[in-house]
Amino acid sequence: MMTNRYGSIVAAVLILKAGSGVTHAQTPEPQQELRGSIRIVGADTMKDLMDRWITGFAVIHPAVRIELAAKGALTAAPALSNGSADLATLGREFTPSKIDGFHAKRPYDPTGIRVAIGSYDTSGKTVALAFFVNQANPITRLNFQQLDAIYCNSLLRKAPHPITKWGQLGLTGEWASRDIHPVGVNFPDGISNFISLRVCKGGDLRKDIREEHTGGSINVLDRIVTDVTADPASIGYAGFANLKPGSKLIAISEDGGPYLEGTRAEVETARYPLSRYIYIFIDRAPGQPIPPLKLEFLRYVISPAGLYAFAAPHRCKPTGRTSLSQTRTLHGRKYAPLRHARIFVLLHHPVAGSGGANPC
């Protein structure tokens, strides 16, 4: 377990086991007869997927009434915190202010359950992130310790000192004395929060990062890459769809292992370290069981029938792996369902190196 200002990070395996195949006819047998209601609040981008899960769950548990209010990502954390939601859906991790709001009501952390891997290259959605440099920059790859030393104050990845010049990364000649100009999204947006959690290991971002603010007619990640194309000494992060002339992607490695360029296959199997996740958050006190209604709904989500919800009619696009690791297209968005037969529960954000569990 690791703790920081974002709370505990726990990878706890929950009780659940899914089948081995996905077909429209497969539904899990109910563990018990249930009655009652489930209130779900959160991201409007997840509405289609939640509707499919709710419809399928109702077949098994017709006496359970589910209310879905998919009004936007900003509604998820407050509803979970004030008790007006049993489940909160979100395409990102809780930001520090949202966790503080939850802590104002309860002395423990919200529990985030990964339910799918985010998009590979659908702009404006929960996309995997990549680091970009100017096309003229000779650098080709960086590891997380180096990125931490460029972007973060805390140096929790044990770099001996901050990295502020390209020469510290091995560049020579005119590049050796050039200052590094990091660019990013203003904090605490969900994207910059993800960089803080994954690259900085929950530490603080540097104050001198050039920040692009969300909003406006041009996507913030497009603006970051534009900044990189205009400044040879800059580095920034964005989605794969944001690549443009004058910029280039660099390969990354989290722990000194293989350097990955972020191919579609690497992202959709979560091998790429900056793959992102979609969550269902619950209020679960430490050591307490998940209430039966919530538990059965989550059990359905990872069942073969729940995985089938990723396949819109005539839009199923398997990757060639086994059925539990297929990737399907849903309304123009790429989703990768859970490959594993268990739910992995994490507080706020993925555990570095945990791999495997596949959120949306």
Task: Outline the structure in words.
The chain folds into two domains: 2-119 and 275-346, D-Maltodextrin-Binding Protein, domain 2 (3-Layer(aba) Sandwich), CATH 3.40.190; 130-261, Periplasmic binding protein-like II (D-Maltodextrin-Binding Protein, domain 2), CATH 3.40.190.10. The protein contains nine helices and 18 strands. It has helices at 47-60, 76-82, 96-103, 144-151, 190-198, 220-230, 264-268, 292-301, 304-308; strands at residues 2-4, 7-9, 12-14, 36-42, 64-69, 87-90, 111-117, 130-134, 141-143, 181-185, 210-212, 234-238, 247-249, 251-253, 277-282, 328-330, 333-335, 343-346. Mean pLDDT is 80; it is low at 1-26 and 313-360.
The dominant shape is: elongated
State the separation between the terminal residues, measured CA to CA.
24 Å
Strand order of the largest sheet: 3-18-7-15-6-4-5
- Helix % is 10-25%
Uncertain segments are 1-26, 313-360
SS element count, helices: 9
Q: What is the annotated CATH architecture of the largest domain?
A: 3-Layer(aba) Sandwich
Q: What kind of sheet is the major sheet?
A: 7 strands, mixed
List strands and helices in order, with pairings.
Elements: E1 2-4, E2 7-9, E3 12-14, E4 36-42, H1 47-60, E5 64-69, H2 76-82, E6 87-90, H3 96-103, E7 111-117, E8 130-134, E9 141-143, H4 144-151, E10 181-185, H5 190-198, E11 210-212, H6 220-230, E12 234-238, E13 247-249, E14 251-253, H7 264-268, E15 277-282, H8 292-301, H9 304-308, E16 328-330, E17 333-335, E18 343-346
Parallel strand pairs: 4-5, 4-6, 9-14, 10-11, 10-12
Antiparallel strand pairs: 1-2, 3-18, 6-15, 7-15, 7-18, 8-12, 8-13, 16-17
Helix pairs in contact: 2-3
